[in-house]
Amino acid sequence: MAEVRRVGMLTGGGDAPGLNGVIRAVTVKCIEDYGYEVVGIKRGWKGLLAPEEDSVQKLTVDDVRYILDEGGTVLLSSRTNPYKKEGDAEKVVKNMQEFGIDALVAIGGDDTLGVASRLHKDFGVQIVGCPKTIDNDLSGTDTCFGYDTAVSIATEALDRIRTTARSHERILVVEIMGRHAGWITYGAGLAGAANVTLIPEVEPDLDAIADLFKKRAERGEKWGVVAVSEGVTIGEEYITQTAERDEFGHIRLGGIAETLAKELKERTGIDTRHVVLGHLQRGGTPTAYDRILSTRYGIRAAEAVKNGEWGKMVALRGSDIVTVSLEEATGETRTVPEDLYDVLKTFFG
Amino acid sequence: MAEVRRVGMLTGGGDAPGLNGVIRAVTVKCIEDYGYEVVGIKRGWKGLLAPEEDSVQKLTVDDVRYILDEGGTVLLSSRTNPYKKEGDAEKVVKNMQEFGIDALVAIGGDDTLGVASRLHKDFGVQIVGCPKTIDNDLSGTDTCFGYDTAVSIATEALDRIRTTARSHERILVVEIMGRHAGWITYGAGLAGAANVTLIPEVEPDLDAIADLFKKRAERGEKWGVVAVSEGVTIGEEYITQTAERDEFGHIRLGGIAETLAKELKERTGIDTRHVVLGHLQRGGTPTAYDRILSTRYGIRAAEAVKNGEWGKMVALRGSDIVTVSLEEATGETRTVPEDLYDVLKTFFG
Amino acid sequence: MAEVRRVGMLTGGGDAPGLNGVIRAVTVKCIEDYGYEVVGIKRGWKGLLAPEEDSVQKLTVDDVRYILDEGGTVLLSSRTNPYKKEGDAEKVVKNMQEFGIDALVAIGGDDTLGVASRLHKDFGVQIVGCPKTIDNDLSGTDTCFGYDTAVSIATEALDRIRTTARSHERILVVEIMGRHAGWITYGAGLAGAANVTLIPEVEPDLDAIADLFKKRAERGEKWGVVAVSEGVTIGEEYITQTAERDEFGHIRLGGIAETLAKELKERTGIDTRHVVLGHLQRGGTPTAYDRILSTRYGIRAAEAVKNGEWGKMVALRGSDIVTVSLEEATGETRTVPEDLYDVLKTFFG
Amino acid sequence: MAEVRRVGMLTGGGDAPGLNGVIRAVTVKCIEDYGYEVVGIKRGWKGLLAPEEDSVQKLTVDDVRYILDEGGTVLLSSRTNPYKKEGDAEKVVKNMQEFGIDALVAIGGDDTLGVASRLHKDFGVQIVGCPKTIDNDLSGTDTCFGYDTAVSIATEALDRIRTTARSHERILVVEIMGRHAGWITYGAGLAGAANVTLIPEVEPDLDAIADLFKKRAERGEKWGVVAVSEGVTIGEEYITQTAERDEFGHIRLGGIAETLAKELKERTGIDTRHVVLGHLQRGGTPTAYDRILSTRYGIRAAEAVKNGEWGKMVALRGSDIVTVSLEEATGETRTVPEDLYDVLKTFFG
Prior knowledge:
4 copies of one chain form a homotetramer. Chain A folds into 2 domains: 6-146 and 286-329, Rossmann fold, CATH 3.40.50.450; 150-282, Phosphofructokinase domain (Rossmann fold), CATH 3.40.50.460. Chain A contains 13 helices and 13 strands. Chain A has helices spanning 19-33, 46-49, 61-64, 88-98, 110-123, 147-168, 183-191, 206-218, 236-241, 256-268, 288-307, 326-329, 338-345; strands spanning 6-11, 37-41, 56-59, 103-108, 127-131, 171-176, 196-198, 224-229, 244-245, 251-252, 272-276, 312-317, 320-325. In chain A, strand 1 (6-11), helix 1 (19-33) and strand 2 (37-41) form a beta-alpha-beta unit. In chain A, helix 1 packs across helix 11 (288-307). Chain A is elongated and about 70 Å long. Chains A, B, C, D: The record marks 132 as: Important for catalytic activity. Chains A, B, C, D: Pathway: Carbohydrate degradation; glycolysis; D-glyceraldehyde 3-phosphate and glycerone phosphate from D-glucose: step 3/4.
């Protein structure tokens, strides 16, 4: 193992509140406790593959002291993957050497960490991973920073929307992040007391949902809130039958929330509307929970560098931060298990 | 003037945070200080035009004591207008008499208050109006409850979105309420430090906006946030040239934010996304400002009933709550004046 | 085991955001899935020891459907302990029988659950416990609802206070809950980026803290924020030497924050002030995290009733909700371990 | 009038959320629209009276673009008053000349603006004032930035505290800013639905307040929330009769909230507690309202510099930002008028 003097750090993939917490903790721990130099690499792997003038810059404790409550990532991000094109991985390794980077902390999701794992395996790069998934779907860790913030934002949205749904006697369908795993929708639907919550893991039964709202209407509650993951799909036959044409004669198609709203209106006769939370869920100051978790990740990642735990990734197991093999930790999507969804179904109605 | 013993109250049109503040204040003041009985009428004019079993119910101080921080309206709302069909206004007047309602407090926007004004004029109904416009576009009052809350929500959204736009080096276009008047977008764009803010009052110059973002990119800020009112329009030629076809071959058309995002991407080469805040802006607990304003409105409305100021509407003038003629106060849309928009333009860039 | 038809439920001790989440989940699950009747018992053990007219009341699904986002407890609370006076425990058991309560869900801290454990042991009462500790110091569970909310509130306070401390070049000392365990202060001090965080588990070194602030001042940062648990103690010699006399000649003594502020001022020459968060940390709407955890607790408690897991308590272990023996789970205070406090110390300065 | 090339700006007195909004607007407007140079003066008048190395620094648009949502003041503040010591005012004027500052924007309260007024009158300094009073008690303007934020924070505190007061059947007394004028307490007490609100303008009747809580208790509401300004005083006889002695035998005296809590407990028999919000009310991100108002103030102040409106202060009148004479605008405290307090009293109970 080569001695570590200069540690590089990068963030890749979609941003998640808490990234700056990791960056801050790695920087402070490496500098203050271990005497390393720390350099920030801009725009994920892109900053090492095709470095521009600002791509590699020294980070000081003063640079990061008060970034804990900032959303996004001060290192910027990209989706560049050096294993997509022959020869790119070699370039990354060569540039690391040219910048004198002895060890690398790579913060990102499955894609970013997959690259990290291969760089370690293929070239012996001294690398430590830190998981980042706002969707909470990485199999190698119990949970991840960003998730709690996203659930909080979506929950607050459901809280707000409930009052307007009730006042106007409408059904409001709220589209929440989650293409393959329904974790954010699950959390927000539970915490935000949605009347129905739909996740990609379970096929929705539109007739049953319509019945539920009809029953609510019968007992005087002619309104409701539906939380639905963006990744939920319903059969194509539903889509065409309610298509509307705009002023140019084109069929107007929307996402799942819009489609679902139309279907529920048709089946229940209750006025329905939809909202898509979208990018609102990504940005902004992290919750206290995410600040703490990201800080603990960062501290442990710095320790892993000190210990030479190359090819490992920090992870939460119960209440502990541990390290696990990057290779084993990535590649699988963790979905919402049936028993948790059952908890939610208790409150449908 | 007929003696007042029982006061009715209703809310009409779109809901706005603060409605419950008015309801609470009218109820408490009328009962505790004047000894009136107060009845709540459900679903706006609909509750008087076609009363159902639950349409007219007594309100007590205990019913309303702690509703000040609740969004929506405990009296529910509708867009029913008894002047749309011959004979309906008469039915409303007759039902008021049958329910023994001597005076009416009507809380709503231009439509609801227009009905109130005519009922007073045509039938001598003892009526007092309270303005409600989340859009801040009623000409009869300086501002109205609900507006501050809507601006606060949209501002927080812009705050959040800025960090993700910057981290991913994207332009994010945020669609904010306001079909005819740009007040909410104006307030949020200013408070949320949007790089560009577009309102219906001023035609947007897409080339100038694109230039602005190109200049930002040249100085290293390859990202930005645009706040745009839903009512902003751009020429049809823009729309067709960037149309995308979905998997069914249909042209996918969206609102102004989506269209604008595509146009800016084409003109700047910077990745762009959009978010539509929609119903998020309506619901939820009112800000302290809106709780205070709505309470002051409600107190003054009760005083107006006591004083027999029929055909009048409460209004804010400077720091004072006054009453103005319903007839004169309604019918005109107040838009964002040029000098205020100029303040905003100082910060474009 | 006696068949269960009517389930009683009570909350004891200090309130914690999330109590209503447990109440709601137990009620809905017991009624909808198991067909039990559920009765709420007011004011903890007091409601069974000395029942008043309103002490035992039926709970319906409609009663609890929308209480998830409300702070406090709809069942009210008290600190009554029927094991403090001879014969009281027997009265509780007798009253349970008179009210026809076959099984009891007791939600509370060490004191409440200790009673539950003994009632089960001494009289065979069919009882299930649910832990509640805003202080996060119950040894039987990984964490508890209320804690995340308290940390969030205190973190937001530290965020706010930082800007005013910096603008006025002051040290601000913030007193946070925690008499015996420093968990809330630990979490908030970490998430709120306090310059120093003090917890009851570790004796503070005032000279070292003063030195830290002097060093900050030397590099131009003549300000700072200290997070301190209410339970932190410093030697009496400190107290007297800085005592001030008020206009009546009495010595003015305060809590730890006030005392610490005076000491730091004397040692550093920097203007210092203090704030005591106090009851602010208890109330208000729970975070999404606490809503989810409390709901999962409630569901599992209802299942425990169904399963006849008497004398057990629900608990979080890793990501799972399990049941553990009430007897073993209570009686020990869980404090902040040294390695976690070390994470925090990395950021002192 | 000397031509303006370089504009200085300073902030004095207690900080108020929104100060950075003024600083940003003055800087951007002066540079972008008028081509002035802008320099920030650190620590109010102290920065001109006894300048240190960092006291006068150039401000660029980039320095201020994203400070709108930050609490505090990037220019720091002090309470230095150059009219307290002979010869100091002359030093300020001389230093202004040495720094080449042709015009000065002074942002502050009565004290800071009083100095500004005299410097203009005594030495012809080209000065424009901007009012800052979190207490809302400056007579020259309808309202001021910072006030809305302070009211919002205190309102949220009352919202939170209500749930814990109710759950524990306690009276909670909350001490809110306001030594001479009760504006913040007035706003928060109204918006936060306090059961009783006390302001310095009106002497409290403790027996009447106790009766109110006794009546509440009789109808089953054995709890309540009192909002009280720090400046409220009650007769000394109350204080001594409930004095408690600590473990050292010293009498323990607190502020008005603590004293009031003891008195109410003695008179009602209901458990009472108190909270002092203190510095919490000053810091943190400004509300959208305060961001907008402070921006409008800053723009108008820059215009006043351009127009040579020396010796004037920007002010809000109705919906308009105007300028008024500094001399006339300062020196008087604006208190809560009786009719506004009457609105509040309607809801006592």
